[in-house]
Amino acid sequence: QVQLVESGGGLVQAGGSLRLSCAASGRTFSSYAMGWFRQAPGTEERELVVGISWAGSTHYEASAKGRFTISRDNVKNTVYLQMNSLKPEDTAVYYCAAQPPGRIWYPQDAKKYDAWGQGTQVTVSS
To answer: Among 2, 98, 94, which Cα is nearest to 49's?
Structure first.
């Protein structure tokens, strides 16, 4: 199982950008699918923002399309989330998560991920 540590959150004005990083431990990082989830204030569920499979395929939720970009560096064992044109409704705690390899990739199903980071706060002011 991998261990994950996020960084890069902070306070930014609407229209600004942030890049989140998620560093993973373990030699099998490249075989994991990765996802970025977020949990908005006052909500109980974490929702997928974007995922990237072990083969490099990506899945963006509608809220992220055209503004956010996920990428991974399997040499550095790190996955990134570049967030541009941020909006106040993007305010949330952002979590990265790792889904172990399998026959089928389930980017949106949080139960399929077996490792989570501690989260990093992103606050977008209007």
So the answer is: 94
pLDDT in tens, 68-98: 999 999 999 999 999 999 999 999 999 999 9
Over its C-alpha atoms, the chain yields an Rg (Å, rounded) of 14
Burial class of residue 52 in the structure, from the number of CB atoms within 10 Å of its CB (0-12 exposed, 13-18 middle, 19+ buried): buried
In the chain, the percentage of residues whose pLDDT exceeds 70 is: 100
φ, ψ of residue 88 in degrees (nearest 5): -55, -35
How long, in residues, is the chain?
126
The answer to whether residue 120 scores a pLDDT higher than 90 is yes
To 10 degrees, the CA torsion angle through 35, 107, 32, 65?
-50
Please check the confidence at residue 109 and state whether its pLDDT lies above 90: yes
What's the helix, strand, coil split of the chain in %, to 5? 5, 45, 45
